[in-house]
Amino acid sequence: MSKARLENDKAVEFPLRVKITGEGDVNTPNEEPVAISNRAETKNLVDWYKSLSLVWKIVLGIIVAVVVAGIVGFLIYRALQREKTMEYYVFTVKTGDVKDAGTFAKVEAMLYGDQDVSYSLALNQSTNLLSLNNFNRNGLDKFFFHEKSVGKLERLLIRHDNSGLSPGWFLDWVEVNATKSGQVVRFNANRWLSKDQGDRRIVIEINAPST
Q1: Where are the domains of the chain?
Q2: 93: β partners
Q3: What are the distances in angstroms from CA 18 to CA 9, 37, 206?
Q4: pLDDT tens digits, 66-108
Q5: For the whole model, what pTM was predicted?
Q6: CA 194 – CA 170 distance, rounded (Å)
Q7: 110 CB-near residues (< 8 Å, 6+ apart)
Q8: Signal sequence: where (predicted)?
């Protein structure tokens, strides 16, 4: 190879350096980070705002205020509309006064109305502070729920999961007070929910008494 050829080869060398960052990824010094680009866009926006006259700044401020007020108003409206469909339910549960009537099982209830059906309501936070456990023999337990309204109360489903020590339960009655609509309905059970007592069922449905 001639000396002239070597000199030509050197003349076409490129001072390009690359950095391998991971599995086959190659970054060049010419790549601009996204963060720098975002800062540049923000600076351009700030410069544009500063270039506006006072009148246009006031107009822009009014437009932003109107948009924000509209969004807030819409959210408040949606919340008020949703509240109209809600109801405050108070469950009072009376456990019977018979031997081994109480239960340690987890109890759930569902309300059926003429307009809708409630979600499954876990009866696990009684307001009875005199007892460490719910559903003791001859005990009264109260539970509060803020749920969608089901309309006129027609039927109650109540069940337990047969868990814990002595899961069998003698339920006397359940009274449901729908405080917004003023309904108070007592669902009389007077029976066992037990795998070992009565008809060995742990899920029952009780119709509201006819009026």
Answers
A1: 86-207
A2: 141, 174
A3: 21, 21, 77
A4: 999 999 988 887 877 776 779 999 999 999 999 999 999 999 9
A5: 0.63
A6: 8
A7: 117, 118, 119, 120, 121, 156, 157, 158
A8: none
